[in-house]
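User: Fold this; tokens only.

Assistant: Input:
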Amino acid sequence: VQLVESGGGLVQPGGSLRLSCATSGFAFSRYAMTWYRQAPGKERELVADITSTSGTRDYADSVKGRITISRDNTKNTVYLQMNSLKREDTAVHYCQWSDFRGQGTQVTFSS
């Protein structure tokens, strides 16, 4: 099983990023997927999750209205579209399936 995140980077407040998580090694289209994030000195936070057919998507209160989770089952990839970014969004963002997660992609605000 592999999960590889990408798309993070330096942003300014109010900016946008699209994170991707490319997966392999399991039947991606059958399972829900989750994005988490962890900021320095803070506990891990569930950002969003999505069911196998995208029928249900749930979000943390802190990101509702600004972040959209989506998936492409033909590409075995889950996405996180992040808009109106705030400094408190600074964190390593990673996707997870079952007990497997990727290495994460860093979202950082430029000064």
